[in-house]
Write a structure and sequence with these properties.
The chain is of the alpha/beta class and 236 residues long. Helix content is 46%, strand content 13%. It is built from 10 helices and 6 strands; from the N terminus they run E-H-E-H-E-H-E-H-E-H-E-H-H-H-H-H. Helix 5 links the parallel strand 5 and strand 6. Helix 9 crosses helix 10. The longest helix has 15 residues. It is elongated, with a radius of gyration of 19 Å.
Length: 236
């Protein structure tokens, strides 16, 4: 619901308290903005939107819990009038495309200036048909033209588990599949990404926003110079 006096009510969703505080200060410096609540994870975000029905939601793409696409879908089902703007450190066409399909109204990199943020909030509230995107030309072009690399939901799921350094056996156990099935999926992933190892596949998928990084599980990285760590196999 709109803020008192006809202003714009805003919900902030980010798992860093210091970042939320900074956003609140920027937003509440505007006479027509009112921050009606904050949340730090996907469940809290959905509950906040259900309770407050804010005009605008500023949603960090990496909050704990459900991935951003699921969170956006749930919030829009509960409060279709709430306009959702994604805040992200990542500029990837695959992620942007999925979120646009889920119904977001804006996607801003966290490097934007405060005036850009303020303008975006006002725009999505007052101009119903407008999208506000602060991304690279390359990402926007790929979204418009369609990305050449598409992973299935199962392939993304397996690669996200591989990014958590789980073995084929552990992934198979987690997903109730056979190791042979996991190897087959990894082979397909390698082919699609042009990857030579699990690390290479994970890093390429992260760079293209094909998978979402998990903060609670460090992503494996190759050694400086791109070499494969000792003992790392280059096969699935």
């Amino acid at each position: 619901m709109s803020a008192a006096g006809g202003g714009i009510s805003i919900a902030i969703v980010d798992d860093h308290a210091l970042f939320r505080e900074g956003l609140r200060e920027i937003l509440e410096a505007q006479d027509d903005f009112q921050v009606v609540g904050e949340a730090g994870d996907s469940e809290g975000a959905v509950s906040l939107v259900e309770r407050e029905r804010p005009d605008v939601v500023l949603l960090d793409v990496e909050i704990p819990g459900d991935d951003a696409t699921q969170t956006v879908t749930r919030m829009r089902a509960i409060s279709p009038e709430s306009q959702i703007i994604i805040l992200s450190m990542y500029d990837g066409p695959q992620l942007l495309s999925r979120l646009l399909s889920a119904g977001i109204r804006g996607y801003l990199l966290k490097s934007v200036h405060r005036q850009e943020l303020v303008s975006a909030v006002r725009s999505v509230r007052t101009e119903p048909d407008r999208l506000v995107l602060a991304v690279s030309r390359d990402s926007f072009a790929q979204v418009q033209g369609g990305s050449s690399v598409v992973l299935s939901d199962r392939e993304r799921e397996i690669l996200e588990l591989a990014a958590q350094a789980l073995s084929n056996y552990q992934i198979a156990t987690r997903l109730t599949l056979t190791e042979a099935t996991i190897k087959r999926h990894l082979h397909n992933i390698f082919t699609k990404l042009g990857a030579v190892s699990r690390i290479d596949a994970v890093n390429k998928a992260l760079a293209a926003s094909l998978i979402t990084p998990r903060r609670d599980h460090p992503t494996p990285r190759s050694r400086p110079g791109g070499s494969v760590a000792k003992g790392q196999r280059t096969l699935p």
